[in-house]
Design a protein that fits this description.
6 helices, 118 residues, Stage V sporulation protein AE, 84% helix, SpoVA, mainly alpha
Length: 118
C-alpha cells in the first residue's frame, strides 16, 4: 500500500513539476500551460501510454489536468469503435460531461455562498 501512495505522489508531482517549469522557464501563461498539459495527456492516451500510467500511479495520474485530455481521447476512441465518426464527437462529451457538470454546479454554489473579494 505504501508503494501505491509513493508512486502516486511521484507521478503527480512530476506532472506538476512539468507545469511549473512551463511557467517559470518557458514563461507560458496559465492558459497555455493548462492547454499544453491537456494536449500532452491526449497524445499519451492516443499512443496508449496513459492508461498504463493510471494503472501504475493511480490518483497521481488521474487527478492532474493531463487526465482530462486522456478522458477526451479515451471516450472518443471508445465511441468511434462502436458508432463510427459520430462516436468521436459524442464520446468526448459522454465521458467528460459529469466532471464538467460538477465543476459548474459547485462553482455556482460557491458563488452563492461566498462574497468575492475585489
Amino acid at each position: 500500500m505504501f508503494a501505491t501512495f509513493f508512486w502516486a505522489f511521484v507521478v503527480g508531482g512530476l506532472i506538476c513539476v512539468i507545469g511549473q517549469i512551463m511557467f517559470d522557464v518557458l514563461k507560458l501563461t496559465p492558459a497555455h500551460t493548462l492547454s499544453t498539459l491537456v494536449v500532452m495527456g491526449a497524445i499519451l492516451d492516443g499512443f496508449g501510454l496513459y492508461e498504463p500510467l493510471i494503472a501504475f500511479a493511480g490518483a497521481g495520474a488521474t487527478i492532474p489536468i493531463t487526465s482530462f485530455g486522456n478522458s477526451l481521447v479515451h471516450g472518443a476512441l471508445e465511441e468511434a469503435e462502436q458508432h463510427g465518426i459520430i462516436g468521436v464527437l459524442t464520446g468526448m462529451f459522454e465521458v467528460t460531461s459529469s466532471g464538467i457538470s460538477a465543476a459548474i454546479i459547485f462553482a455556482f454554489i460557491g458563488a452563492l455562498l461566498f462574497k468575492p473579494k475585489g
